[in-house]
What we know:
- By secondary structure, this protein is of the alpha/beta class.
- Helix content is about 40%, strand content about 10%.
- It has eleven helices and nine strands.
- Strands 5-4-3-6 form a four-stranded parallel β-sheet, with helices on both faces. Strands 7-8-9 form a three-stranded mixed β-sheet, covered by helices on one side.
- A hairpin with a 2-residue loop joins strand 7 and strand 8 (about 260-265).
- The longest helix is centred in the middle third of the chain and has 19 residues, at about 135-155.
Amino acid sequence: xxxxPTPPRLDSRFRGNDGGVRGNDGGVRGVDGAGxxxxxxxxxxxxxxxxxxxxxxxxxxxxxxCFSGGVDSGYLLAEAVNALGDNALALTAVxxxxxxxxxxxxxxxxxxxxxxxxxxxxxxxxxxxxxxNPVNRCYFCKTExxxxxxxxxxxxxxxxxxxxxxxxxxxxxxxxxxxARERGVRSPLDELGFTKADIRExxxxxxxxxxxxxxxxxxxxxxxYGTAITPEKLTRVNRCERVLxxxxxxxxxxxxxxxxxxxxxxxxxxxxxxxxxxxxxxxRRFKDAGxxxxxxxxxxYRTGSLNExxxxx
Length: 313
């Protein structure tokens, strides 16, 4: 894989230059398509982390980035393109557990960054161990994903496969980390001490439009452990989450409890649920999707709410 002779330096803006991201047309533009800022890093610790990341990526020479389209892998990919040019490749897994609109968003973001991008099909749902939805479900998913990524990397002669795992991810139930260790997948953001806040700030200064995008999780995370996962159930959940999106909610989850759908939204968006016509629209469309009952979680949205019982054990 040939690299660009002079790959674009996204971070040059932090030094007061007006460089941008290489587009597919060979031009240079901001990642969000708008003008570029020239703000220097005020946080010396974050500036050091960014410099360390750039140095690490250049040292690797080539890399495949497991890319979901969220802020973590999006920022890592942008820095990889910045450091490696065409020697960086974004790889996005496509399966029923990925909402179709998220796949489309990933394609659009990769294009705006100027990254080489490939979509690969993964078949975790064909694995009965995954479909049974045990507490280590993510291990089987990541084993499938990382296996495909390593195969793709090997076919291109690339030694390094990277993901967007970071310091803040350490606190949650993450059985997929075992798969990463087994497969030799590296997590540069975690290695260099990036927190979620660090990533968002670095992405914002870089001009990435996803810098404030709410956290992503696959649709299978909406099911209590032990509830079997099927493509049909995933489709039902996705239909209902799209309803909330269309109604203007920014942060939301629909948790699947057989006949009952449990809605999580950010507490500061609770009032939207009771605006004229909204409750009726949610009930109608959730029932059309196959749910008998619809409830609201008064704790509101929180990452990994279905892991709460695991942590208590």
